[in-house]
Model the fold of this input.
Amino acid sequence: MADNPSTMFAFAIGIAARNARGEPLDCYFPAPLKDLEPAVAELVRGHFPAGTSATDGAGAGRFAEALDGAAGDGVAALAAACRRLAAADRPLSVVRLDEDGPIASTEEAYLKLHLLSHRLALPNSLNLDGIFASLPNVAWTSRGPVDIAELPETLVAARLAGEHLEVTGVDKFPRMTNYVVPTGVRIADASRIRLGAYLGEGTTVMHEGFVNFNAGALGPNMIEGRISQGVVVEANSDLGGGSSTMGTLSGGGGIRITIGSHCLIGANAGTGIPLGDRCTIEAGLYITAGTPLEVVDEHGEVVRTVKARELAGASDLLFVRDGRTGRVQCRTNRRAIELNEALHAHN
Amino acid sequence: MADNPSTMFAFAIGIAARNARGEPLDCYFPAPLKDLEPAVAELVRGHFPAGTSATDGAGAGRFAEALDGAAGDGVAALAAACRRLAAADRPLSVVRLDEDGPIASTEEAYLKLHLLSHRLALPNSLNLDGIFASLPNVAWTSRGPVDIAELPETLVAARLAGEHLEVTGVDKFPRMTNYVVPTGVRIADASRIRLGAYLGEGTTVMHEGFVNFNAGALGPNMIEGRISQGVVVEANSDLGGGSSTMGTLSGGGGIRITIGSHCLIGANAGTGIPLGDRCTIEAGLYITAGTPLEVVDEHGEVVRTVKARELAGASDLLFVRDGRTGRVQCRTNRRAIELNEALHAHN
Amino acid sequence: MADNPSTMFAFAIGIAARNARGEPLDCYFPAPLKDLEPAVAELVRGHFPAGTSATDGAGAGRFAEALDGAAGDGVAALAAACRRLAAADRPLSVVRLDEDGPIASTEEAYLKLHLLSHRLALPNSLNLDGIFASLPNVAWTSRGPVDIAELPETLVAARLAGEHLEVTGVDKFPRMTNYVVPTGVRIADASRIRLGAYLGEGTTVMHEGFVNFNAGALGPNMIEGRISQGVVVEANSDLGGGSSTMGTLSGGGGIRITIGSHCLIGANAGTGIPLGDRCTIEAGLYITAGTPLEVVDEHGEVVRTVKARELAGASDLLFVRDGRTGRVQCRTNRRAIELNEALHAHN
Done:
């Protein structure tokens, strides 16, 4: 993107909640754009400076008028949102990112999280440097985000007024559904999906499912397990209830986990290695990178013994713990073994 | 029921939330009836047509008067509810089901889910054909159900007004406690209990517990694990933290799981076979239908080796993985083995 | 404390929610005190009787004036809270506990839970006798606590008014964050932390984490697993996603679990024995007190075979299930073995 100055990485206009000192606690962008076409990028440059800036309802209204007739993915939605925001009697936040650099403000962090949840960017495709430093730790309440320092007074005031303040979390990341609900998904318990999760069309996340930011399921998927930061589950794969994928932030030892298509990770199972396509881990079995495994062919013959990490990314594998011997086995077929050996010969 | 035209399968009058087009998003029935006695059924027939229909506050008030003096389980509660609903200034929903046929409307689906959670019907006892098609996928919010297509505009409007809209889920099924709170239960986290769950008197569901619709615990029970769709846990059995029961919708391979009485499924354990009474699965062990097991008698002798499915429904079994051999064992006593063999001899 | 009549165990003034009969459903104490210095204790005795009593805004205001100039931990915060409570137009609740006796009222139970979550008392350090009997089972709703008997009518009234009542739980214990948010913590899903949890500075509890009352993490910690009642996790230890600690209320067989410092319990793993420092349990492995283990030294030699309970509280242990043999091993070094043997020789 930096190579082509006429395009623009991302743009959005939204509303931030603010603490008593006027600092942003979050930012809601109803219709963010990514990879703007030159004509739209030009319009944006004519109205707003690079980086994070402020405008008001009138500014949003003028920009909506300017967008009239412009073409491009999401442009009509942005224009409609700006027409609504023209009614604002409070400051509006504008983020114009000419390229995908490190995150420099709370609003920029929220824009990138919105891009992921709006399916405008895949997990692991954005520059998220600085995200933790840019996101304030916030009390998420039934009245919206509240500065943690202001919370005790807010709690007392609510009680004195006979009202109830529900504090649903204290975290740097909010729940996705308060900002973005992508089409064609079901989310049984929204408290388990962080803003910045990517849920593809046809994804169902059951109550025990969890999806971190910068992680997700490409859809369609049935997710009843935990998708850690950085992990991607490809189409038609299921995570069973309580199953675990090791993340890059903790436990995974630097290996990025991907689950290929048509995989099944059984209930209460888990993986510390990436899986190719059509792999199954039986319920209750946790495969870590260092797990010693017997590779067994379709005739039941033990072909070799490996550490699980040597099978990282391979397809057509069935992982079980043999109930008669307690050994962990990787059952597969001769073709998969040969493909896998060829693959690793070129590493 | 169809055999006796003077009785009636179920009846309720309630309030639906509706989208901008007037379509129902849910329906709340404060006092549903099941298996109505002939006199009450006759009164219902005199006021309301078969199937799903509409009335208003006046209609509810007239029906309350008609119920005056009628006898039967739940009739007084229904009359009281109708007297309250007489104050309604919005349309009311009526569902009269002469028999337990396939589900034909959103309101009918909600009535059957209410019957389960009101303990008027046991799991697996109702005709739920068509339930997924009849339930719209809805955004569940702090303002009640919202049509998903109307959600983005609702989110923007709330922000512009300086208000907060919490979206707690996007699902076909709502949380039970917003509709029904049965007596004598504790539910630590209501987001984990779907409407249509059956929680018997004396049931505690801890934070890690989960109960799907058409599933439940007969009570008293301590539930810290997951009760999948179709699964029933009988009295005095405990599901340990994070334990798993395979459902009929996914993973269970068509076997319907029941957990008998006085069973204990340990923390992080799981079962893919039904258990009889007084069975224990040790913490962390997952038994699937295909798990090979050594059956060991009270003298420590291995009696035989079986697949777990051969023990489906048997009582007095203790499932452990032997730490010295890694083998999965089913420890039991001679009497239980003989009973079990006799049982299966007649299969 | 009983030895020194001039001091006082605990004191607080707060606001209770009440049912239609005026009985308390909960009690919120904005600034509780513990171990009051004699001068402050004397002031309290001058204003309020021992045990649970009532006052009003004027009483709180007079006490705030009396506190002017008094010194001691938390006294300034208490004075500030009392100045705010002086505006109350509803009854206020006062709890003065001269010593740490059994719990005699709902307000006393709430005060002790507040002391734990305010980090004024460590788990297992308070007399909690009578807590279950003193805590009413309550419907926790978006309007605050509601008496369960009053809930059905409240639900109907909300529907008739076109409003939404969210019932988030039905339990004796509420969520901590609606009462106390300690400094320096992150709590991804507040529904998983009960009032009475102790979260030390620097503790992050992720979505899958759970902390019961009278249990906690001394901080800093990363908690993605379940901390059962009575369990304490010491500094710099991590509980992996879905990991389990056996509690004293269920499953633990009377052993109180402590996790020492610099431990790691892997995802979906669990422990039924206390751990010393620098111990690791690999992902997916559940150690119960009765698990037979091979103790293996740093040369891979099996030193002896024990039940896990014999290693309770020992340090520098790595627990794994050998993938080649299915045996559970405790890998350690000669020094740790010798220390451990010496330790147990003195038991």
Observations:
- The longest strand of chain A covers residues 8-14.
- The domain at 176-345 of chain A is CATH 2.160.10.10 (UDP N-Acetylglucosamine Acyltransferase; domain 1).
- Chain A touches chain C through 54 residues (CB under 8 Å).
- Helices of chain A lie at 38-47, 57-67, 75-85, 106-117, 131-134, 151-160, 334-345.
